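Ticket #4471: structure export looks truncated?
Reporter: QA, pipeline team
Priority: medium

Steps to reproduce: submit the single chain below to the structure queue and open the exported record.
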Amino acid sequence: MLNRRSTLGLLAATAILPRRARAHVAPPRNEISDTLAKRFTELGTSGTFVGYKVEDYLIVASDKERSGEGKLPASTFKIPNSLIALESGVVTDPDKDVFPWDGVKRPIEAWNKDHTLRSAILVSAVPVYQEIARRIGEVRMQQYVDAFDYGNRDIGGGIDQFWLTGALRIDPIEQVDFVDRLRRRALPISKRSQDLVCDILPATKVGNSVIRAKSGLLGAERGEPSLGWMVGWAEKGEAHTVFALNMDCKEPRHIEARMTLTQACLSEIGAI
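Actual output as written to the record:
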């Protein structure tokens, strides 16, 4: 059904067995859900949802086309950007290192103040992460993006713009693969950096479940939103579901709907 990463066989294999055993592991079960797809049309927009139910070894997706289409990651790139900042030493403490406000008044009021890494990811402060990327620099950024096997790994278009308006593209299945490796602390960097980023990821409690996720909104920094993301994982007792959603944000209500639609999709597949 799904046509990227051999139907997420790579993801599922790494979730169960070490790298050397992947060639002998069958891909996970997968389903296309028409009811998930209808949630986007009922909202008056287009989009896709992919959920990987880890313990059930099951991938559920709303479609087999858009789930494999690469898009600019927008602020979901704050996840790898935070990891790289910590691993490279650009940020040593997510609660103590302060990035002073540059004094430029921006349309999102929460950005117009000093920030730590924790507060910056909470309000998705683009200027802070642009400064972080500049401090990391192109050489180190490329090395880590390559090591993470993140999307198409193309950081062309400017060190502080490549995830917003540049050449970087990632599809929902690749997002699930990347986030699951972070969840399992399986990225090729220190456990400390991964622990810290998992800790600062915004968390939402829904009943007896917790959703740890990062949103993204293409064009938010220009006041021209067009594409919305939500990526992360849900925890329900001992069960985990890694997910990625993206959708066209044609109206202001679609921006707020990113999380409510994510919750609805997760609830439908029994993840929360």
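Status: closed, not a bug. The export was complete when the record was re-opened. Leaving a note from the reviewer for reference: The two ends are 25 Å apart (CA to CA).
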